Amino acid sequence: MGNYIDNHLIRDENVVYETKFHWVIFLTLRGLFSLFLIPLFQRKLSEFAVTNRRIIIKTGFISRRTIEMNLSKIESVNVDQPVMGRIFGYGDITIIGTGGTRETFTHIQKPLEFRKAFQEMC
Fold first, then answer.
1. 11: containing domain
2. pLDDT band, residue 1 (cuts 50/70/90)
3. Which tens digits make up the pLDDT trace of 51-103?
4. Residue 7: which H helix or E strand, with range?
């Protein structure tokens, strides 16, 4: 489990599922031009988790972006997978909140399992 998630769990909250960025992020121009350092830091420092109470997502290090949504406030978790994503097991997840909040995260490892963990908790 990631350090951010460990430090921000509330009482009686347990992590049900955790994932990270897929290795395919290394196969981009950004990865090539940075000698694969940016994707390495991106993968190591980002955390995606479903707990028994909420979804917690943290990306970035210097410029940090965090999303913490209670399960009761989430309308749906959508998954988009291109053909290569289906073959190699990655895709995009979009979390849609009740107030119209829409957060999309790309190149997530095993996005269908992430959605399934969310659905089982609701």
1. 3-121
2. low
3. 999 999 999 888 999 999 999 999 999 999 999 999 999 999 999 999 888 99
4. helix 3-7
Q: How many structural domains does the chain have?
A: 1
CATH number at residue 68: 2.30.29.30
Identify the CA nearest to 107 among candidates 90, 94, 122, 119.
Answer: 90
Q: Which two tokens stand for residue 3?
A: 């350090």
Neighbours of 55 (CB within 10 A): 25
CA dihedral 120, 86, 64, 77 (to 10 degrees): -30
Quote the CA–CA distance of 17 and 100 in Å, as a whole number.
25
Query: Which pTM value belongs to this model?
Result: 0.91
Percent of the chain scoring above 90 in pLDDT = 88
Strands 15-19 and 102-109: unpaired
